[in-house]
Specification:
Layout (H helix, E strand, L loop, with lengths): L3 E2 L20 E2 L6 E6 L4 E8 L2 E4 L10 E6 L5 E11 L5 H5 L8 E5 L22 E6 L15 E8 L7 E4 L20 E6 L2 E11 L11 E6 L4 H10 L6
Length: 250
């Protein structure tokens, strides 16, 4: 199977918001906790505020050797850059393993210099018992058209279904309408690090982050599978690191 890392792009700063997530995913209206992460080497990803000054994302989005900023949009859809103060990648994350399509601890935290006026999303570190067909909601700021760098920047979300043999190291999601047989809903470039939500008793909590995508039937691209790194194994590190960074989780 060919996987595609979702952090790759020729963009440094995003244009005005257009769309995000392939397959015609619905836009999210109103306030939200998602944010775009841009790197000085041209990559961009999605993150989610888990505290007013702390963002959860994927570790491959913030590898050493580059500078990173957050991009938010005001009511007039004008971009605003926020400086990052500290970046913490899970110590077991291995970029070589990630690039070789091997499972790794693909989670990271970014502390920003000044708190943002957002409502943080709740995390869940509970043990997952995911079965094929279980539904999850993915929210990302990436591209809505593969290869079109102008199609990113607006938060969109899609409900996807688990497929294969879900475990505690990786969950594979697909559009339940197209079943990975033809192009459908799914993450694309710029959606790495996007939060993945599960309904827990009527309350949506983040149970993972987006790590990669494929095209239909394992082809390169988007609209086939969306790969998720579950948080359950890494939640203790997230909670402890958040505390050390001065932003303890609720």
């Amino acid at each position: 199977m060919i996987r595609r890392a979702l952090a790759l792009s020729a963009l440094l700063l995003l244009p005005a918001p257009a769309a995000a997530m392939v397959g015609g995913a619905a836009p999210v209206n109103g306030a939200h906790s998602a944010v775009t992460i841009v790197g000085s080497r041209g990559n961009f990803c999605t993150g989610a505020y888990i505290a007013r000054d702390l963002v959860l994302t994927a570790a491959h989005c913030v590898v050493p050797g580059a500078d990173y900023k957050l991009v938010e949009y005001d009511a007039q859809k004008q971009p605003r850059l926020r400086d990052t103060a500290q970046i913490a990648r899970h110590p077991q994350f291995n970029l070589d393993n990630y690039n070789r399509a091997r499972v790794t601890a693909d989670v990271a935290l970014i502390r920003i210099a000044a708190p943002a006026a957002v409502t943080p999303v709740p995390l869940s570190g509970a043990k997952l018992n995911v079965q094929p067909g279980d539904r999850f909601v993915v929210s990302g700021l990436g591209l809505s058209e593969r290869g079109n760098g102008k199609s990113g920047g607006t938060l969109r979300q899609a409900t996807l279904a688990a497929t294969g043999k879900p475990g505690n190291l990786q969950i594979r999601l697909m559009d339940p309408a197209t079943r990975n047989e033809r192009a459908g809903l799914g993450a694309c470039t710029g959606d790495s690090g996007a939060p993945v939500f599960q309904d827990s008793g009527g309350r949506f909590v983040v149970i993972g982050v987006v790590s990669w995508s494929t095209g239909p039937n394992g082809a390169e691209g988007c609209g086939g599978l969306t790969g998720v790194t579950p948080l359950q194994l890494y939640y203790p590190w997230i909670a402890e690191t958040a505390r050390k960074l001065g932003s303890p989780l609720p």
